[in-house]
Write a structure and sequence with these properties.
alpha+beta; Jelly Rolls; about 25% helix
Length: about 300
């Protein structure tokens, strides 16, 4: 597909009014970004990766397991950093169609991939994620960052679609600590936020959600009969540098999907609270959140 064709397609998907709405509300769903062939290729790759969870008895660098996982009946709630394991996920992260949308929303041609994961909500019990801001996990020198949710299944309210609080990215950075340690979740009992006005990011498989790094979001447990798989990519403007440091500059620069490396971070007057001291249960967000002070969403053991 030529650059002109890609530009025309993106303009049809996301125009200036849509970009303005994203910047005002902090979230956006763009339907049908993936075509049927690409969607099936990604799904097939996910199935292959999941086969590797058979026989496991504990979390690994690839798999985060549900509490009721069994070696002969695997239940995986997260596949970690798929872009490191499979070329398909790395290629999709840098695909021209997705990159063109990112450049419009981030307001720059120079974009870095920050990370990736696949959150899986199995039918009748997929784990919830408590209210949080991604910014709490990885603050940078500026907040031109966002996350993309590639819907691998139809995402509905019933199967635990991500919920967002519109406009919350323009508000404070909330405390994600409990008893002095990072826990990756907000203490909802102490906050004057109207979670009843949260908006679900629903869409057909192949659609993509986009949310600003400071947007408050979470998701309920999946109590439906339909699974919900969400491939998540995190992106940053190339001149946004992580405040917790860059341990491997070559690896950091290898994640540039457009633009050139720079050693001149752009500093912006954005609120920051560092995720330190680390969570007592380090690992995925599910592990971090086990020490949260209060819970909003129903969990399997309380259902």
């Amino acid at each position: 597909m030529s650059d002109a064709m890609i530009d025309a397609m993106i303009d049809a998907m996301i125009d200036d009014r849509t970009v303005a709405a994203y910047r005002e509300q902090g979230w956006l769903v763009v339907p049908d970004v993936l075509d049927a062939a690409d969607l099936e290729a990604v799904r097939a790759s996910v199935r292959t990766i999941l086969e590797g969870a058979r026989g496991l008895t504990a979390h690994t660098d690839t798999y985060d397991l549900e509490p009721d996982h069994l070696p002969d009946a695997p239940r995986v709630r997260r596949i970690k950093t798929p872009h490191k394991h499979t070329k398909l996920f790395r290629d999709l992260a840098a695909s021209p169609r997705l990159l063109a949308i990112l450049q419009k929303l981030l307001g720059t041609d120079e974009v870095r991939l920050h990370g990736s994961k696949i959150n899986l909500k199995a039918a009748r019990g997929g784990a919830p994620v408590e209210w949080h801001q991604d910014w709490a996990f990885y603050p940078h020198t500026n907040d031109d960052l966002l996350a993309v949710g590639v819907m691998l299944d139809d995402c509905t309210v019933e199967n635990g679609a991500m919920l967002v609080l519109p406009g919350s990215h323009r508000g404070p950075v909330y405390d994600h600590h409990a008893d002095g340690y990072f826990c990756g979740a907000m203490d909802v009992a102490s906050l004057d936020l109207d979670f009843a006005h949260a908006v679900p990011c629903t869409g057909r498989a192949g659609s993509m959600s986009f949310h600003h790094v400071r947007t408050v979001h979470g998701s309920a447990q999946n109590l439906s009969d339909a699974s919900r798989a969400l491939l998540l990519y995190e992106y940053a403007a190339a001149d946004a540098w992580p405040l917790l440091g860059v341990p491997d500059l070559a690896e950091f620069n290898s994640r540039l999907i457009s633009g050139r490396p720079t050693v001149t971070p752009r500093l912006a007057p954005v609120p920051v609270r560092l995720p330190l001291p680390p969570a007592p249960h380090q690992g995925s967000i599910y592990e971090n959140q086990t020490t949260a002070r209060s819970r909003y969403f129903g969990h399997r053991d309380a259902a």
